[in-house]
């Protein structure tokens, strides 16, 4: 009955759905390369052949990173099984191709319409399907389950926003969740929440946050010194790294730096905008406040005396945290949602963030409880807090030790998740063998 109601609603909304799809293809261009596969026209490489297949859907850029370590662990014990990855957006597809090196194929996830879902499943023929995070598409899960595909949610987490939305249509979530065979949740809080929405408690396990397995290892002293030399910092300098800042945050963190430097004149700042193309805008803010700056992309601009370095290159932020004394992670002073705080923690650094942490709620809670993560409400408070912390070297040393303990507690989530997927795969293969025999 729920299936009928859901698809009747989709049928009534079909003119608007069609207009939305056409808009994405011809106007916004966001589905220009993906629409054929989203309608079900999936094509996998011939090299996959007739091997059994595991299909993992990476919801976001961050989940592509999380999926990478799971795929790697799964392949170690199931080398002959093909693992294919789907994404919803073209940006997500690009990141997945870069991140999930061990995947046997990439394609786009279908629209949650019966013909699109049925066609995609017929083309891919997965034995197990796993979705990251909590992006739940009812038709897909229902049809996959009816076809005997084992289904799982991996690296699962439920934010306050998702929970509130689910409570508006509890019947829909109960139906969708009833088609999932295993819930691999990041924390006990997430496990309790998914059970409250209708998940079978016997199918829910806490496996941890897989992203912890993908962060860079702590740099050793020689590697840190090389970075300091590149930035022309001396050991007497203190360094504040503000990572993944967005519009509405840049000026606040720069003001925080200025405030902290009244007490710590040896303090320097590295700011890494989430959108590198905004580097000139940030330079103008820095200049307007009477500060000097250098571009990371142009080593000739480094003198060692500049106040701020703008990190306008890709892929370096995680390591740059290693030369910081204090850090801030953006997306958190505006209602965008905090970006990854695991990178600075992995380097043993205290991390500050604003109140908007709904995307990273579990890790933020862990960081607070471990005494390595600190919530601030605005740039003024950030300036006061980092100034106080920089004055207490003993506390910085203690935080470094606590960071190491927190990371150790999270390592292994990918292996635990891969083991759960392997278990589902073995169940599915055993069931198929019994059907063939009789």
Notes on the protein architecture:
The chain is α/β, with parallel strands linked by helices. The chain has 2 domains: 176 residues, 3-Deoxy-D-manno-octulosonic-acid transferase, N-terminal domain (Rossmann fold); 190 residues, Rossmann fold, CATH 3.40.50.2000. Helices cover 47% and strands 15% of the residues. It has 19 helices and 14 strands. The chain has a 7-stranded parallel beta sheet, with helices on both faces. Strands 10-11-9-8-12-13-14 form a 7-stranded parallel beta sheet. The protein is elongated, with a radius of gyration of 24 Å. It starts with a helix and ends with a helix. The mean pLDDT is 91.
Query: Tell me about the biggest sheet?
Result: 7 strands, parallel
Principal-axis shape: elongated
DSSP summary, beta strand count: 14
Provide the residue-averaged pLDDT: 91
Indicate the CATH topology of the largest domain: Rossmann fold
State the CATH architecture of the largest domain.
Answer: 3-Layer(aba) Sandwich
**Rg from alpha-carbon coordinates:** 24 Å
Fill in the keyword field for this structure.
438 residues, alpha/beta, Rossmann fold, 2 domains, 7-stranded parallel sheet, 14 strands, elongated
